[in-house]
Amino acid sequence: MKALVYTQPNEAQLLEREAPVAEPGDVVLRIDAVGICGSDMHAWHGHDPRRKPGLVLGHEFAGTVLESRHADWQPGQRVTGNPLITCGTCDYCVTGRDNLCSRRTMVGMTRPGAFAQAMSIPGRCLIAVPDSLDAVRAALTEPAATALHAVHLSMRGLARPIAECRTLVLGGGAIGMLTALLLRHYGVDQLEVAEVNEARRVSLERHARCTTFDPKSQTAQESAFDYVVDAVGSALTRKAALAAVKPGGLVMHIGLQDWASEIDMRKLTLAEITLMGTYTYSTADLRATVASIDRGVFGDLSWVERRPLAQGAQAFEDLHHGRVASAKVVLEPAH
Length: 335
Description:
Layout: E1 2-8, E2 11-16, E3 26-35, H1 38-44, E4 55-56, E5 60-68, E6 78-81, E7 84-85, H2 91-94, E8 105-106, E9 118-122, E10 126-128, H3 135-138, H4 141-155, E11 167-170, H5 174-185, E12 191-194, H6 198-207, E13 211-213, E14 225-230, H7 235-244, E15 245-253, H8 265-270, E16 274-277, H9 283-295, E17 305-308, H10 312-320, E18 329-332
């Protein structure tokens, strides 16, 4: 089969690989669509020691069952799924917080991912996709679930209903865009998004009906926002988030572009700021997200760019050089 392989930092190649075989409990999927995640870009740059050259990346997938050794799935069924492979028995797993399982592994990290014509995955990770939801939109389930999980977690800490909050999203990539779309669905009408890419700012204003600005030339109003979402996670955006949030407000930290930085602990303490971190989603979030995408909660998703898997290496290059206006590129393998 053809697979897009991460071969060395800043390089991916379309290569021939052995087709996967289903082990007991596994399902082999024909990959119909797969999104390029920011973490895939991070790995492509050589910045993720967990993802080593020779690996097939990709974990935002939609596919069709080809072979099943799991009782719940039969060939021909359309699915997406949870790329996190968890133990199923720890306290986190049994209480529905499986994203925090300390024994988790992941497709596209510890086993071959979805930038290929086919992929194997444990059947218990899969979620059915309704016939009304096409593969490209279904492949948005994973990043959309990340946004949904973060926003729902934030609601527990906000002092007022989210629709009343003046809100700032830092970063207009896929997570920032999907977060903005979800916030608009929840009635947030005081919404600003900081994004350096001009074409993405235009897309955000059109699809999320929000106000945007370029953080390279404009700074968010200081201590003015009830709720700030850092969808980048750099040292600069963490500093900007703490500066922009008002006393008693909440900062939700999603991105992990940089793994360490200083933050304004004095303001965090004296202004009683709530700082929350979030990691991915639960399986319940993924199921809810499939239904939400199908209902149009995230809009029509017409801003998503589609490319053949054969053009995947060029897609990584274009994303690296900022030549892509869309916040999400989805690759479609030929079959």
